[in-house]
Design a protein that fits this description.
This protein is an alpha/beta fold. Helix content is about 40%, strand content about 15%. It folds into 2 domains: about 15-20 and about 275-374, Aspartate Aminotransferase, domain 1 (Alpha-Beta Complex); about 25-270, Type I PLP-dependent aspartate aminotransferase-like (Major domain) (Aspartate Aminotransferase, domain 2, 3-Layer(aba) Sandwich). α7 (about 185-190) links the parallel β8 (about 170-175) and β9 (about 195). The structure holds pyridoxal-5'-phosphate. Pyridoxal-5'-phosphate binds near residues 73, 145 and 149.
């Protein structure tokens, strides 16, 4: 075999300002290259306990059942649904963008009777309309996306929504894949039952783990199931026996990704949650102002804007694909386009985790000015 066509890769200069993955700090890359140890090694069991504690800090929860799922954010989404849905259960899903649609699709595949509470892409939901929708049937759970990465909208009022959901005897599922570690997520104060995220967005580890936390109320619903969880790999009745005592083998967890996540979470704790949220906010505000000055204001109104992902409205008549291509090939900067109803209308610019740095904002704005106007 002629192996000369398989070139050495060097992509270390890429500046990732898309909707994820975000850039990974050197300390996390170092942790990733730790020689693997056995997934039941006593030292590694200590690492599992630390990861759980650091995740509780990050999710702002005391939930015992808090650990990362092996898989990306979508595995977290799937775990959040398959553990609680039995065939025929009625569930209500809020859809105002791509990831709400994915929730509905997954719930359907586990045999749920899915009702959608729909809004146009970019909108957010008001507690009153959620309350009205909850009255229509006896729902087992209600799922909603906190930071909708397809639109750049942040769903507020989560605490109020949780109260309504619980008053109707349902569980609240919250998707925080694009928000955890970048904007406030208060699982206990808001009383969220099932909350999942992804390692590669505002936490700035590589893609491959989905941090997750489950309330005691939701664990009771899980234990009351009449049928086994339809997905063996993501079954929490089994996973909790590995992540807690007696640490029974279930699958070989991706040991190195867990080292990497531990380091990423140590960085979160060292920085402090409030400081981290303020950094995301400040850098995005600089970006928002710069985009407005360039005639490309964010499409989401300020009060619903997600600080980790910005979606500017593109000027008419530009070839947005070729500008993005030049940003990447000539300047090593990645941003992303819109899709679905927003295809060709917006860009998606992520300032997530380690990517959220002032120098990246200044660089991107000056490159855009050059590529758009010269
Ligand atoms: C990225 C993302 C997901 C899916 O995560 P993957 O890591 O791509 O599987 C789900 N929900 C939201 C809001 C996201 O931004």
């Amino acid at each position: 075999m002629d192996i000369s066509k398989f070139k050495d890769l060097d992509l270390s200069s890429r500046i990732l300002l898309g909707p994820g993955p975000s850039m990974v700090p050197p300390r996390v890359l170092n942790a990733l290259s730790t020689p693997p140890v056995g997934h039941l090694d006593p030292e590694f069991l200590g690492v599992l306990a630390e990861v759980k504690e650091l995740l509780r800090f990050t999710f702002q929860t005391k939930n015992e059942v808090t650990f990362p799922i092996s898989g990306t954010g979508s595995a977290g989404m799937e775990a959040a649904l398959c553990n609680f849905i039995e065939p025929g259960d009625r569930v209500l899903i809020a859809t105002n963008g791509y990831f709400g649609e994915r929730l509905a699709e997954i719930a359907k595949r586990y045999g749920a009777q899915v009702d959608r509470l729909e809004h146009a892409w970019g909108d957010v939901f008001l507690p009153d309309e959620i309350e009205e929708a909850l009255q229509k049937a006896d729902y087992k759970l209600f799922a909603i996306v906190h930071g909708e990465t397809s639109t750049g909208a942040l769903q507020g009022n989560v605490k109020e929504i949780a109260e309504l959901v619980h008053a109707h005897g349902a569980l609240l599922v919250l998707d925080t894949v694009a928000s955890l570690g970048g904007v406030p997520v208060k699982v206990d104060e808001w009383d969220v039952d099932i909350c999942y995220s992804g390692s590669q967005k505002c936490l700035s580890a590589p893609p491959g783990l989905a941090p997750m936390t489950v309330s005691p109320r939701a664990m009771e619903v899980l234990m009351d199931r009449k049928t086994p969880v339809a997905n063996w790999y993501l079954d929490f009745t089994l996973l909790t026996r590995y992540w807690g005592k007696p640490h029974v083998y279930h699958h070989t967890v991706p040991v190195n990704m867990i080292f990497a996540l531990r380091e990423a979470l140590r960085l979160v704790a060292e920085e402090g949650l409030e400081e981290r949220f303020a950094r995301h906010r400040t850098n995005s505000e600089t970006l928002w102002q710069g985009l407005e000055d360039l005639g490309m204001p964010p499409i989401i109104p300020l009060e619903h804007r997600l600080a980790s992902l910005t979606t500017p409205k593109l000027p008419k008549g530009i070839d947005e694909k070729s500008i993005r291509r030049r940003l990447l090939t000539d300047f090593n900067v990645e941003i992303s386009g819109g899709f679905g109803p927003f295809a060709g209308m917006i860009w998606r610019i992520g300032l997530m985790g380690f990517s959220s740095r002032r120098e990246n904002v200044i660089l991107l704005l000056s490159l855009m000015k050059e590529l758009l106007f010269s």
